[in-house]
User: What shape does this take?
Amino acid sequence: MAHDGKPVAAGRKFDSVGTRPLRPDGIDKVTGRARYGADMNMPGQLIGKVLRSPHAHALIKSIDTSAAEKLPGVRAVITARDLPDLTGGDQGQMDTLVNTMARERTLYDGHAVAAVAASSASIAQAALKLIEVVYEVLPHVTDVDEAMKPDAPLVNGGVITNGVTPKPTKKSNVLIRHEFGHGNIAKGFADADIVVERSFKTEATHQGYIEPHACVANLGADGTGDMWVCTQGHYNVRAVCAAMLGLEQSKLRITASEIGGGFGGKTMLFIEPLAFALSRKANRPVKMVMSREEVFRATGPTASSSMWMKVGAKKDGRVTAAHAVIKFQGGPFGGSLVDMGAMACFACYDLPNVKTEGYDVFCNRPRAAAYRAPSAPIVTFATESVMQEIADKLGLDPVDMRLKNAAKEGTKSSYGPTYGPIGLKATLEAVKETPHWKTPVAPGKHRGRGVACGFWFNFGGNTSVSMAINADGTVALAYGNPDIGGSRASMSLMAAEELGIPYEKVRCIVADTASLGYNDTTDGSRVTFAAGLSTINAARNAIKVMCARAAKTWGISEDAVTWEKGHAKPAGANAGKFEPLSMAQIAATAQNTGGPIAGHFETFADSAGVSFGTHIADVEVDEETGKVTVLRYTVLQDAGKAIHPSYVEGQYQGGAAQGIGWALNEEYIYGKDGRLQNAGFLDYRIPVASDLPMIETVILEIPNPGHPYGVRGVGETPIVPPLGAIANAIAAATGVRMGDIPMSPPKLLKALEGRAR
Amino acid sequence: MSQAGGETEFVVEAATIQEMLTRLGDAHPALRPLLAKSVSVVVDGQLYRGAWQKPLREGAEIYLLPPMQGG
Amino acid sequence: MRFEAPATVEAAIKLLGGEPGLAKVLAGGSDLIVQMKSGRIEPALVVDIKRIAGMTAINAEAGGFRIGAGVPCFALESHKELKAAWPGVVEAARLIGSTQVQGRATIVGNLCNGSPAADSVPALVAASATVRIVGAKGSREVAVLDIPTGPGKTALAKDDIVESVFLPARPSRSGDAYLRFIPRTEMDIAVVSAGVFLTLDAGGTITAARVALGAVAPTVLLVEAAAKAIIGSKLDAKALDALAAAASAACKPIDDKRGTVEYRTKVAGVLARRAAETAYARAKGAK
Amino acid sequence: MSHVHVTTTINGDPTEFLCEADETLLDALRDRLNLTGTKEGCGSGDCGACSVTIDGRLVCSCLTLAAEAQGRSIGTIEGMAKGDKLHPLQQKFLDHAALQCGVCTPGFLVAADALLKHNPDPTETEIRYWLAGNLCRCTGYDKIVKAVTEAAADLRRA
Assistant: This one.
């Protein structure tokens, strides 16, 4: 059930929702008191460190840990032998097991090979050097196009491709082929007046959260344990660790620390099972903190891609057919999320004939993780580039051209389903009203403006929320999703709104796995939607109890009591004349009316509602160096309902900044030896403060009928349009259309020189 | 769906998502592992990763999509 | 590892000379500590020179300036006379890393680290700067140009300490400038860089010039052909083109994660031209 | 393993500790003194999360040896609020929602404080360049720049 079925009150006036109070965890976070992953220590803890493969692909002939074990201060050394295969043939679990610790072969530069726990970090570091691993280096491949060649080295032994008819007989690096679409593209292209066809390549990027992965594990010989960990999903940490180590979930209590960014990268596990395994072997708590180099080499970056796209349109700009072939590598196990790319590719548009094909390809690179609207920025770069090229060739206004093709309620989406009420057209129409669009690009050499749209699915999922009414009438609210960007404030606002009490009366905590029912990971822009929906319903359940208590106090029937602005009141004149009872009054006598008062709510929240946005970018290109400066940037997006507008704006701005970084400079650079060349913030170049302008935001509110207040997830969509918007702005400034991401200075300068000739 | 002999559209009599998936598995046993493994179900434009007791209306538009995840 | 913070240069030299293992001088530490933490080097001894009297001072000398080896880059900015005389050098120092890094990093450390991409080095070479080296056999003054001998390598002996860098008196009607190219606006290592110093006669004709390039060869390059291309000119378009061409022609760069041979070669000319324009304007009295 | 004995002042408090000779000031603050407000984001001077001041000068504590703190005066995020009163920068960061995950926030606050002591009336460009060594991956910097601008105005009026 999504919610109680009450429709969103059109034009509803909110008291708390939509205001901008200070976040409840704010003081801790500006004074340094907030405790993140690496800020916790357990009594008697050891320090764990990981030995990693220097080879992109190698057989492990032998591992000798005896010298390390003898080093004074070393308490445990583990290898794959300490993590037996308990997967029961489940391929997904097997991939996670192998990714956590290499077994017979290492599959990428940085793949974990062994781990130690010692009494100090320096002893643990010294012990790693004493572990002798004999490798037999195998041929490797790190580029998706190279990996698809018939003579490519087979990564992880290769695989028989799924989704291809007839089924291939020979192994390759292609795990699966996906196909989506409808209509008849051959007919559509035949009907077109203009056809644009282009190829694109995009490099892998990293979420670049500032806090490296960290955890402290404590596991006893009886299988009972605790962990403090920075993660987007502590329930998932429990599930994965329990399965991998053969433990019962009830015996593991996982507490999520404050989290220093995730963006999808902390939905996967890396060091956590190792910390538990070391702790079990040493019978001591073990703390593990990744270095920044480890984060880049051995966590989950995005896929890298190679794409081909063809779009046909009539002279008036109406698209008649669209076809894309998308190849993603996402590491040695598949799971590049190319299927989501193929689905999201043309999702902004109402297309009569459309086909997308996706190939999931193995490479000797780290296993890809989700990164904010995973896959959508990559494919949308291609789509928005081609759409703009058609508009340019036809001499059409970029916004009008997109409006002509924009998906709307009733559109059959490119991935199949028919859309309900959606906000893409609204964002495009709102573009025309922005100060940015109404003002020409500031005068200067080689400047241009670009526009791009973006789509994201948004998710809901398993959610549990528990609300207790304290004896003084204040509220303790427990939800189970790490607060990654202000969700305590949003939950408190929704609780306050529904109860009709001041925001300050609600204290919101992120519960550990033993204290609250199951919650899905903080991902898919789900928290404000799903945990918010559950908070509202938990409040409604608490209100029901409080009304019943008031009824008891007054000696009237329960349905004769109504709830208004934090008070129980007789529903009407017939119910009797009683002074309204406040929450504090009801709570104060709770022990005499039936005991403690609480409301809880558990659901699988569906009905998240898809999300759309449109971005405008002005850039200047230094034509002698190929450097791009972003002069002005505006984000327009449908939020359904903005619970705390400051944090909605923050999501828009932060997503745009990440997208700009992806567009211009961020990339994984692999050497010929298959090793990552830029595993640090020095050469993996995320935008710094002086790289960006102020980022203007426009919040549109087209209510999501699936949420009591109309909320849509907002977190992911903002990273989708920037790559296309910047590419289109560069094209407007220079006449050069870039096919490669990032559009870094050497590549752009080369393209500019090509244009001159 | 290569597991269903290349067929991509199916008509099934079912009152809920759960029943629909069961019937589909009965008609095409090769699909069962895929259906069991977790699919995303879209009913009349609304994505359901769970909520398999969701009642289906007559003539509902249903899509089975790969399992999805976000960041 | 041992840590020592001696109070005199003599004590420091003795410590360095007496250590059988790897001994390193610590000034700002912004290169040294990164190398230690990454495991690239494991020194047996680190000698902090910042407690030595005079190491953290900037003093006027012979119309120029002597900057102690422990002076952090950030401090150069607040020395008004130094900044007025050698704005290019000060700008170069203020491009090294972040504000935080500049609170520690020193230009002597930048030089002694031996990186071909060191920001302050082309500016110092263009400015004809020298360093004073103190060793077991006494002290000597050596041109900055002669210190780097290859990536990560210098002409310094194990018990040599660079005590200070000296910027000479700036001739009248002269100016310097330094520019580097990086993909972002801050925080990157130079992909290519250029330092230019030039002197004019009363009519605005260039009478002397030094053009130094960074990150385009194993060490900083002093490109005489580029200087010749502008000497005798008023930095007209033709002279600028000749300067750019000469600068590009002198490049012997490599392909790496930060740039290609082709890119570095082209942009070296662009930066030399732009730096020369700034230096020329400064020589004519522009702020 | 021989340890170095260090006597120093941290946020005005006389402090002594033992550390390894090659231990960074960041590690000593966090692991020996339990001052975990100073964060490690990179360990190489590229992210600014470990920003502290030494004798008033802004530095990365990850690029400083703990032994160098001998006799110096160290300032960290824990010393920024005076009693129960937040520093105007801290208050403006809250008012403007200038933090999302908050892990970079201590470094930004320490760096911004150093900026306003050096330049009480910085332009937007000066703020952006001064803070270029502090990486934030959540906010896109917009609200941080606004918070610093407003805090500067407040401090000038004070």
